[in-house]
Amino acid sequence: MDETRSMIAVVDDEPQFCRALARLLKAHGFDVMTFSDGDDFFAACGSRLPACLLLDLHMPGPDGFEILERGAARRLPVLVLTGHDQPGNPERVRALGALDYLLKPVSATRLIDAIHAAIDCSPDSITGTGRDDHRAGPAGHGDDPLPASKTAS
Fold first, then answer.
1. How many CB atoms lie within 10 A of CB 123?
2. pTM score, two decimals?
3. Could you report the per-residue pLDDT of 87-109, keeping only the tens digit for each?
4. What would the DSSP string read from start to end of the chain?
5. Which of 12, 49, 109, 112 could form a disulfide with 56 if both were Cys (CB 3.0 to 4.6 A apart)?
6. How far from each other are the two terminal CA atoms of the chain, in whole angstroms?
């Protein structure tokens, strides 16, 4: 990644999760825009696209699937963050262009690594599984996971 600060957009309907994520991303040198729904994201990003989109799947208005269907992943790298893992979702979001599928709570290390890989457009750096290494378990990754949302979006 170059020396300029990359803009990361977060679309998630849980304010507490957005605040925690914004703090983490800013601490890692990113600029952050947060949106509570897809309509606000599309309205705000017409002229300046972020370097990466962190996208929740389940929220009011256009959900994450619809945002992907509208072509967001054709315009910028998209990482899906969800607390609602369902069979077929990882394959569906990847078919719609998402680079990775991460489950909440996600470790800060795993998330930051995925963002850097997405911005760098390095397919070898993105695990693509989002399963075995995304949660901080008892041994963890040496950092605290971001909180799961109350509604497990």
1. 10
2. 0.80
3. 999 999 999 999 999 999 999 99
4. --SSPPEEEEE-S-HHHHHHHHHHHHHTT-EEEEESSHHHHHHHTSS---SEEEEESS-SSS-HHHHHHTTHHHHS-EEEEES---TTHHHHHHHTT-SEEEESS-BHHHHHHHHHHHHHT-GGG--S--SSSSS--SS-SSSPBPPPPTT--
5. 12
6. 30
